[in-house]
Amino acid sequence: MKAGDELPPLEIGITRTLIVAGALASRDYQDVHHDPELARRKGSPDIFMNILTTNGLVGRYLTDHFGPTAVLRKVAIRLGAPNYPGDTMVLKGRVEEFDGDTAVVRVTGDNGIGRHVTGTVTLTVAAAVTVPPGGAG
């Protein structure tokens, strides 16, 4: 892995269940994340995903790529176009820096109406531990 490497994209279907479950899991009980009628009254065409769910999906994207030993050290994201039910978000990443066991990855996520998320994530990528044939000695 080196600076400039592109991560493979990840497509995530945006469902009502994902939006509501993410809001509940993060204890975000704002009506715009679970009640379509109240969301409409507030000017939104439907419920929409909260930032904590997006944050979790960005983390999942990176740990899926770098493996279960990767540790997220800093996640800095900014939201743009809302994620509404029935859309698809495509996450993409580009390694900005790679020094020793630390990577800095620029992440974007686009949906049908525009850029949903932009951010930078710093993570530690642990080297895989191998056990020699016959055990650890």
UniProtKB/TrEMBL annotation:
CDD domains with a match to the protein in the record:
SAV4209 (cd03455)
* A matching Pfam family: MaoC_dehydratas
Q: Where is the MaoC-like domain?
A: 11-101
Q: Which family does it belong to?
A: Belongs to the enoyl-CoA hydratase/isomerase family.
What is this protein's name?
Answer: MaoC family dehydratase
Q: Which organism is it from?
A: Streptomyces asoensis
Provide the taxonomic classification: Bacteria, Bacillati, Actinomycetota, Actinomycetes, Kitasatosporales
